[in-house]
Design goal:
Layout: H1 4-15, E1 22-27, E2 32-39, E3 43-51, H2 53-57, H3 64-86, E4 95-101, H4 105-122, E5 126-130, H5 131-142, E6 150-155, E7 160-167, E8 170-176, H6 182-192, H7 199-207, H8 231-246, H9 253-278, E9 283-287, H10 294-307, E10 310-312, H11 316-319, H12 324-335, E11 340-341
Parallel strand pairs: 1-4, 4-5, 6-9, 9-10
Antiparallel strand pairs: 1-2, 2-3, 5-11, 6-7, 7-8
The structure holds 5'-O-[(R)-(carboxyoxy)(hydroxy)phosphoryl]adenosine and zinc ion (ZN).
Length: about 350
């Protein structure tokens, strides 16, 4: 009898020409344990997400060790539930996909080891997927008509970048943050304002009550480049709040949230606009958790409508971490013959986004 690797390779190669491909995907890069089943890269048959938000709230942020332990507790039942919701048996699956990076090392390892075990037990190919590529794919499951090429603004808790996506597996970084990600910046500002984790959605909500725009001691850097920097803005807001606290003055939290959100979204929109206009972009795709931000969505939609650019925003449940986006990307990896992993696959805290 042929060994696992030979069988997996044969099955993986056969996916290129297979009419219907059903992939079970596992995602555990941060604080969501997620398992999903996706058909042909576009149809989500099940999407199970066990969120640890309530667990990490009391610490004000994700505690990596706690996240790993909770992934271990949740992953088997997520797997069973994903099969049940899709009304499928293990034998119906064509491949197992898993996020192998970027993310928290210990958290990723739980998903990687679980996926390796399932792939081996079922003699199925194992497809190692980049988390950031998965976030792009959130748009393929949100918009059936979306096809590359397009420009993409990637705004997650771990990444902030402008990407050029020429094909499903031809992705180039145009510019990226040189320090903090925009999600980190939202979370840090929320924390200093005493808002609970995850900060982004709470800033978004509170900012709606803002009445006055505060001028922070801050100037946007990298004016003539597509790179971003958010650490200066973060420090300016934190200093503003601390100064007020030291003087015993009242802090208008809604004004701080609103003023920060205006600045940070202006920065993202400005660079995206420049890239689109300079490169005659016809389609713009938004990806990542901060893509759920109402002001960012509004500003980008306004710009795209004005310039007659088609804009694609992921539906909210696919903005933040889920495994359906990983199952979608794995399908396109398989069709392009990339991503097949063997049982030595391990987790990677950082992964190069460029491919093809
Ligand atoms: O993409 P994601 O789920 O995880 C990573 O891959 O990192 O992004 C999580 C980030 C968090 O920083 C969270 O605060 C932020 O997305 N976020 C938001 C909103 N919803 C989630 N930030 C601003 N406004 C929102 N509505
Ligand atoms: Zn993510």
């Amino acid at each position: 009898m042929a060994d696992y690797l030979t069988i997996a390779k044969q099955k993986f190669d056969a996916l290129k020409n297979k009419k219907d491909v059903i992939i079970l995907a596992v995602e555990s890069s941060c604080d969501e344990t997620a398992v999903s089943i996706v058909k042909n890269g576009r149809e989500v048959l099940s999407n199970v997400v066990a969120s640890q938000i309530e667990i990490h709230k009391r610490f004000g942020g994700v505690v990596p060790e706690v996240a790993s332990r909770n992934h271990i507790l949740a992953i088997s039942s997520c797997f069973k539930q994903a099969l049940m919701e899709a009304n499928l048996k293990k034998e119906d699956l064509d491949a197992i996909a898993v996020t192998y990076g970027a993310g928290l090392m210990g958290a990723l390892l739980v998903g990687v080891n679980f996926a390796k075990t399932v792939a081996y037990a079922l003699s199925l190919p194992l497809i190692a997927v980049s988390h950031v590529h998965g976030h792009i794919s959130a748009n393929y499951i949100s918009h059936m008509e979306l096809l590359p090429p397009f420009a993409c603004l990637m705004v997650s808790g771990g990444h902030t970048a402008i990407l050029q996506v020429d094909d499903y597996c031809k992705i180039k970084v145009i510019g990226s943050t040189q320090d903090d990600s925009v999600g980190e910046c939202f979370d840090k500002v929320a924390r200093v304002l005493g808002l609970s984790y995850p900060g982004g959605p709470n800033i978004d909500k509170l900012a709606k009550n803002g009445k006055n725009i505060i001028k922070f001691n801050y100037h946007a850097p990298f004016k003539d480049s597509f790179n971003f920097s958010f650490s200066g803005l973060k420090t300016a807001v934190v200093n503003y709040v601390h100064n007020k606290e030291q003087k015993g003055e009242e802090i208008e939290k809604a004004d701080v949230a609103c003023s920060f959100q205006e600045l940070v979204t202006d920065e993202l929109v400005e660079k995206t606009k420049n890239y689109c206009l300079k490169n005659n972009v016809k389609k713009l795709v938004i990806a990542g958790g901060v893509g759920a931000n109402s002001v960012l969505r509004e500003k980008l939609t306004l710009f795209c409508n004005k310039e007659k650019i088609d804009i694609y925003l992921p539906i909210l449940k696919y903005c933040t971490d889920n495994a359906a986006m990983i199952g979608s990307m794995a399908y396109y990896y398989a069709k392009n013959g990339i991503g097949l992993a063997d049982l030595t696959l391990t987790a990677k805290p950082n992964v190069d986004i460029n491919v093809g």
